[in-house]
């Protein structure tokens, strides 16, 4: 279970690498806890000016580990909710590199990021309702704001798969590039951001997010309540259990 999340600090950039490739970087409780720790470290460390999140040139994140859902008894807050709250409250720029699958949280975390680079053939998917669940990470608010209700409904409720190029057209991704240059392109962008005056960058980012911050916080509260209720429903448990038969 060690080294499921790798981190490296250089040139005022903290690079976080998802490193569970045998499970397509599906996030489990251990990984979420480490992400929370790293985000807190980056928030408190004045030497870190930018965060870079990546997998490798073939895989980003297949979403939540479904086994964790089945094991969760509802007695305490699901650690994924703690992570998305930290993600939304984070004060420094976030750059993300996407290749291969970007499922569930692998897509919704991008709505809180500042620059996203993807391969053209990356596969984005928000399969919440197909699992008997509902949107999370304030995606029920942010995705309609970004692309309108109808297109957001198609992605969030129908769960249609879309490519990196489509994600770029939707405004979720900044730029598409070939897989062989994905990680270097994202790192260069993060380092360029980190070279700028940190206070000016973080103040600008804060001002851009200020008008929706309270709405985002409330959306996360609402989503967490319904997500937890649905996660404990017979319908959801039956769907998730079928994956392990």
Automatic annotation (TrEMBL):
Pfam families (alphabetical): ECH_1
Source organism superkingdom: Bacteria
Protein's name according to its UniProt entry: Enoyl-CoA hydratase
Taxonomic lineage: Bacteria, Pseudomonadati, Pseudomonadota, Gammaproteobacteria, Alteromonadales
PANTHER family registered for this protein in UniProt: ENOYL-COA DELTA ISOMERASE 2 (PTHR43684:SF1), PTHR43684
Alphabetic keyword roster: Isomerase, Peroxisome
Gene3D superfamilies linked: 2-enoyl-CoA Hydratase, Chain A, domain 1
Organism: Thalassotalea profundi
InterPro entries in alphabetical order: ClpP/crotonase-like_dom_sf, ECH/Chromodomain_protein, Enoyl-CoA_hydra/iso
Localization per Swiss-Prot or TrEMBL: Peroxisome
Main location: other
């Amino acid at each position: 279970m060690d080294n499921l999340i790798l981190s490296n600090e250089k040139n005022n950039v903290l690079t976080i690498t998802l490193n569970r490739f045998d499970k397509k970087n599906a996030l489990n409780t251990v990984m979420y806890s480490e992400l929370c720790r790293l985000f807190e470290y980056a928030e408190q460390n004045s030497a870190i000016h930018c965060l870079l999140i990546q997998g490798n040139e073939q895989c980003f994140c297949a979403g939540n580990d479904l086994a964790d859902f089945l094991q969760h008894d509802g007695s305490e807050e699901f650690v994924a909710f703690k992570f998305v709250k930290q993600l939304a409250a984070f004060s420094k720029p976030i750059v993300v590199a996407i290749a291969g699958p970007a499922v569930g949280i692998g897509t919704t975390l991008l709505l809180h990021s500042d620059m996203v680079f993807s391969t053209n053939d990356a596969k984005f998917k928000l399969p919440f309702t197909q699992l008997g669940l509902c949107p999370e990470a304030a995606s029920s608010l942010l995705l309609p704001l970004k692309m309108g209700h109808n297109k957001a409904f198609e992605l969030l409720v129908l769960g249609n798969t879309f490519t990196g190029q489509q994600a770029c057209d939707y405004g979720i991704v900044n730029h598409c590039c070939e897989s062989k240059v994905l990680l270097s392109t994202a790192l260069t962008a993060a380092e360029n951001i980190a070279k700028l005056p940190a206070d000016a960058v973080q103040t600008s980012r804060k001002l851009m997010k200020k008008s929706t911050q309270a709405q985002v916080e409330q959306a996360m509260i609402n989503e967490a309540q319904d997500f937890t209720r649905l996660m404990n429903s017979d319908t959801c448990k039956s769907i998730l259990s079928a994956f392990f038969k």
